[in-house]
Every structure is written in structure tokens, then in C-alpha cells.
Design a protein that fits this description.
By secondary structure, this protein is of the alpha+beta class. 39% of the residues lie in helices and 11% in strands. The protein has a four-stranded antiparallel sheet, with helices on both faces. It has a two-stranded antiparallel ribbon with strand order 4-5. A two-stranded antiparallel ribbon has the order 7-8. Strand 7 and strand 8 form a beta hairpin.
């Protein structure tokens, strides 16, 4: 059984089988608060967390970004597709006698430590020819033979520190450093977006400004399909019609989807959403207070201005 062939049949662009090793530098950075709280569940010592495994499989799902950044980054659509592809791949591996489990490990650090790809100033992983437009998924494996690994010749630094990513960023990038607390994407799970960033939210599920600004990234873009535009209409979502959107982004996106839809109704001046937002306000337990207060205030002001025009 050829692992590389299986991974490509599943839809992945690349697959790397790495030995199991710890990532002490990554752990130190996490302990220093360098990472988003979502990093808390990541296993920094795979050998201890998965004592039965003798290899780590990291799969790369490459994608082409959308040409319209006002709907949703293609990353989140593709991440959901890659999740289901990895799930099917693990089932096939186990069926063929190879124990395989999804790995909660720092994929990007593992790849860089193995000499695969390179890190950009925006801290994203770059691998030619896909640039930073990739989704990573990993699994721990129990293979019949130990893993020996030779890194590919695709890890030459490509970032020329031009500063373009920093210029377009809302504040997370500064003089070669990255602070997740000022990155919009870091708040796309279920955390309230800080007040100063509410007016800057322009699409569901985050931001790709630094990636689009990077001159090293591929320039190809594809149109946003009509079914995605329709599914991600923020007014429909605040009405409660989120089934199609969740099918695209994943069922675990329900709460953040509503949170973002509320803000986007305001930022797009969708005054027809106001009655639904007021209804949400009446039944909210405080979870959506920040977003509702912001959106209702913006749309009530917009409605009043329309009367005077």
C-alpha cells in the first residue's frame, strides 16, 4: 500500500511521513503566551501522547483563493473539505491494517523542523508552488517498519521581508513579530471580536490580507460560486437560515457564524436585519451582547439617516 498514492486519491496535494519527535521550542513559545488559546489542546510530545505510533503523517491540501474577499476566505471552505477527506483516509488506513488516528500536533512546526517549507514574516507556512494557500491535517500511524526521512529540496527561504504584509495588517504584525491578540482570524472560533475590530470585519471567518499582499504567493484567483454567496448572506443567517452555510464551513461553526453575521449586517448596512437583531437581543443571555449592541446601534443610526436623506 502506497501512502502517497492514497493521500492523493483522497484529494491531498502532498503528504509527508515523519518520525515521531518532540517540539520543545514550540512548547516554550506556547508557555510564553505566543499562541492563541486553541493551541492549549495540541500535544507537544507525540511520543508520550501516542505511545503506539512510530510515524506522523502530515497531509497538505492546497487551494486557490477566491477573487472576492468580501464573502469568506476559501481557506474555511477548503478546511472543511480537507477534514472530511482526512476522515475518509483514516478509515481506509485502519481498514487496511494500519492503525491511524488524527493527530493534535503542531503540524507547521513539525514540517519546518523536518526541513519542509519555510516560515514567512506573517508566520504562515510557505511551500512551493502553493505558497501559503494550504490546509494542513495530520495523523499518527503505526507502520510495519520504522520511518527514515530525507527532507525534500523545498525549504529555501523565500520571504524577502518586504513589509507588505505588515502594511495591510490591522495590527498583528510589527517589525517581524506577530501578536495573535491583534489578528482578526484568531477570533474566528467563538471568541468575541474586540470592539476596535468590529468595524473592520468584512467577511465571514477571518482575513487573508497578509496573504494577498505577499508577492511570493501565487496570483491565481477563482470566482466565489453563487451557492456560497447565497449560503453566506448574513441577513439569512440572523434569520436562522444557516443550514447551507454550516454545510460549507462545518457544523462546529454555528456560534461563530451567527456572531459574525450580526457584525456583517451592520458593516454592510443591511437595515432589513434590524428586527431580527432586536429579537436576538431579547433572548440573548449575554453571549452575543457585544456584537448585538454594535450592530443595532449602527443600523438604527443608518435607518435614521435614511429618513433624513
Amino acid at each position: 500500500m502506497n501512502l502517497s498514492v492514497l493521500c492523493k486519491e483522497a484529494g491531498f496535494s502532498e503528504a509527508f511521513v515523519l518520525p515521531v519527535s518532540p517540539y520543545t521550542d514550540w512548547t516554550r513559545h506556547r508557555n510564553d503566551g505566543a499562541f492563541h488559546t486553541n493551541a492549549d489542546f495540541i500535544r507537544d510530545d507525540p511520543a508520550a501522547a501516542y505511545p503506539w505510533a512510530n510515524a506522523c503523517l502530515i497531509c497538505v491540501w492546497a487551494y486557490t483563493p477566491f477573487d472576492d474577499t468580501s464573502v469568506v476566505p476559501a481557506y474555511y471552505i477548503e478546511s472543511n473539505r480537507a477534514y472530511h477527506a482526512m476522515k475518509a483516509l483514516l478509515q481506509k488506513l485502519n481498514k487496511n491494517g494500519i492503525r491511524a488516528e488524527r493527530a493534535e500536533t503542531p503540524y507547521r512546526t513539525q514540517l519546518l523542523q523536518a526541513g519542509i517549507g519555510t516560515r514567512m514574516d506573517n508566520q504562515l507556512w510557505y511551500y512551493a508552488p502553493y505558497g501559503t494557500f494550504t490546509v494542513l491535517w495530520g495523523a499518527m500511524l503505526a507502520l510495519p517498519e520504522p520511518v527514515s526521512y530525507t527532507p525534500p529540496h523545498n525549504n529555501e527561504p523565500v520571504c524577502d521581508h518586504c513589509g507588505r504584509c505588515e502594511k495591510v495588517c490591522f495590527g498583528a504584525l510589527h517589525e517581524g513579530t506577530f501578536d495573535w491578540r491583534h489578528c482578526i482570524r484568531a477570533y474566528m472560533e467563538n471568541q468575541p471580536l474586540p470592539n476596535e475590530y468590529l468595524p473592520k470585519l468584512s467577511a465571514f471567518s477571518g482575513c487573508e490580507r497578509c496573504q494577498f499582499a505577499c508577492p511570493q504567493n501565487p496570483i491565481e484567483r477563482i470566482p466565489v460560486p453563487d451557492e456560497i454567496r447565497l449560503a453566506l448572506d448574513p441577513v439569512e443567517i440572523v434569520k436562522g437560515n444557516s443550514k447551507a452555510a454550516l454545510a460549507l464551513l462545518g457544523k462546529n461553526r454555528k456560534k461563530p457564524l451567527l456572531r459574525q453575521a450580526i457584525v456583517l449586517c451592520a458593516n454592510r448596512k443591511r437595515t432589513e436585519a434590524l428586527p431580527y437583531l432586536l429579537a436576538w437581543k431579547e433572548k440573548d443571555d449575554g453571549t452575543l451582547e457585544t456584537e448585538l449592541n454594535y450592530a443595532i446601534s449602527v443600523l438604527q443610526f443608518e435607518q435614521n439617516m435614511v429618513q433624513y436623506r
